[in-house]
Amino acid sequence: MRTEDRPARSITSFQHPDDVFEALFQSIQGGEKHVRPPIVLTPDSPFLQFIEVGYALRACLEDRSRRDYLIQRLRPHLSAIIGTLPASLLPHGMLPRTAPPPGFRPLEQISDAEVRAWLAEDGSLIYGEFQRYELDNYFEAIAPLIPPGGVMVDLGSGLGKVVMSAALAFPFQRCIGVELMGYRHAMAIERLHVLLALARQGLAALPSPLTPDTPLQLPFGGPAHGSHLLDLAARIAFIEADMFKVDVRGASLVFMYSTCFGPLMDALGDKLAREMREGALVSTTTYALKHPAFRLLHYFPAGTIAWTSVMLYQRVGPLATLAPATAQAAYEPDPEAWEERVRRDLAALDGAA
Question: Which among 91, 83, 37, 84 has a CA at the least distance from the CA of 62?
Fold first, then answer.
């Protein structure tokens, strides 16, 4: 297994399909460094309730006299907080910086259930992706289980790196990314356009034209034909949508970079169990799928494939014959230690103001 990226091979000309593959892989790196713009506040925004609760929480953070109350409201929900303070409340968070519109409620009028739901959504908005060497490790690990054809779906696909890489690496019939954040979806579409333009350029420059029947060797997925590259545009799609509202019953592999999905894993397990067919695969990071409809095929501890643990599951058994799912307990920090860190972080924010 690799532990860091190899030096990038300079592609100065396209002499072989391998040169095209390498140029395309290189073109979709570096997404973790993108700028995260604030959410736009509009009357029809799907994030309107998220923004309202976020504004109420941030108002308590910014008013030093109300910080004890903020800590009191967050403390029962530590298992749903990624890090110490919720990311959206920090200066680099994605909440709009404009004043709240009339009618937004103060935190005192917002229920604990709404706060917990907000924290779960806040965590799911945090962006992360595999570095190239980690994705290479992952592809090598799952390659023996990926037959030709099938549909790969990435829930929470971000800027599209895994979707486009999987379409290059494996003989999937189709690779689909589902992303809720509009700006990330737009960036994935833009990166796809760059990828396809580069593919056309590379294929046109090959000394021998690639035909649909030209034998190819895929980087991880074994033998294929020229149609794999020639039909790349038809095999990749991105959807701007809530992953809970997209049906994945046709997927042969569902991928989730789920490191920030902790509070959502029970609901995701239930959704996938109801929709996926027997034999289909599900891949998660950091958090396990506890639903009895999924059998663990491989567990890769943190520090092997990637910086975090990676799990690969298979959908098994008719749903009606399985025992009910049990709720999983996410990691929850010690409340006293958490509060000490919060107060330290708040003091640091005050000092930086």
Answer: 91
Please check whether residue 181 lies inside any domain of the structure: yes
Instruction: Put the strands of the sheet holding 151-155 in their side by side order.
Output: 236-240, 174-179, 151-155, 253-255, 281-285, 310-315, 294-300
* Residue 281: strand pairing partners: 253, 314
Task: Let me know whether 189 and 229 are in one domain.
Answer: yes
35 vs 38: CA distance, rounded Å: 10
Closest by Cα among 323, 228, 269 to 24: 228
pLDDT digit string (tens) for 71-121? 999 999 998 888 899 999 988 888 998 888 899 999 999 999 999 999 989
pLDDT tens digits, 214-238: 999 999 878 999 999 999 999 999 9
pLDDT band at 320 (very low <50, low <70, confident <90, very high): low
What's the confidence (pLDDT) of residue 95?
92
In the numeric block, the tokens 């579409």 are attached to: 189
- The answer to whether residues 118 and 138 belong to one domain is no
Q: Is the distance from CB of 281 to CB of 314 less than 8 angstroms?
A: yes
Number of domains in the chain: 2
Same domain, 239 and 225: yes
User: Whole-model pTM?
Assistant: 0.88
Tokens of 274: 């109801």
Domain membership of residue 114 as a residue range: 48-126+341-352
Three-class secondary structure assignment of 280-335: CEEEEECCCCCCCCEEEEEEECCCCCCCCCEEEEEECCCHHHCCCCCCCCCCCCCH
